[in-house]
Amino acid sequence: MAAVRRLTEERGTCLVELHQYAQAETSLTQALQLGPSDRRTGSINTDLAMIGARLHDIDRVTTYAGQALIAAQHTKSGYVMKKLTGLQPHLVPLLANRAVRQLGEQITHLSTTLATA
């Protein structure tokens, strides 16, 4: 089961990079439904937030990145934090929105906190 979950996640991540967002979202959502670890959940939610950022969908960005932040706080995962900091440049076009600005600030704060822990 873990192999299927991981392959589904990896497929979704690759599809995000190929800009095939509908297929990526389907794969990533399936991966979440398969019950991944907290660390994997954070990674998947960051990929889903990336789809939202690229589509300029503020609700998706804030929902999924917020969930990824919770996972990063809970697991203290450097891997999830790295993915979240990789999301930040994609948030720039959306920074006129207060929720997105706050999200960017939370990512920066958590990144700094984890780096000094």
- The total tally of domains equals 1
Shape, principal axes of CA atoms:
globular
CATH architecture: Alpha Horseshoe
Mean pLDDT: 94
What CATH first level would be assigned?
Answer: Mainly Alpha
Q: Give the helix proportion (percent range).
A: over 70%
The radius of gyration over CA amounts to 13 Å
What fold name goes in the CATH topology slot? Serine Threonine Protein Phosphatase 5, Tetratricopeptide repeat
Tally of contiguous helical segments: 6
Which parts are unreliable, with pLDDT below 50 for 5 consecutive residues or more?
A: none
Content of β-strand: under 5%
H/E element order: HHHHHH
The largest pleated sheet is described as: none
Class by SSE composition: mainly alpha
Head-to-tail CA distance between termini:
34 Å
Number of strands: 0
Secondary structure elements and pairings:
Blueprint: H1 2-17, H2 21-33, H3 38-54, H4 58-75, H5 78-91, H6 98-116
What does this protein look like?
The protein is mostly helical. It has one domain: Serine Threonine Protein Phosphatase 5, Tetratricopeptide repeat (Alpha Horseshoe). Helix content is 83%, strand content 0%. The protein contains six helices and no strands. It starts with a helix and ends with a helix.
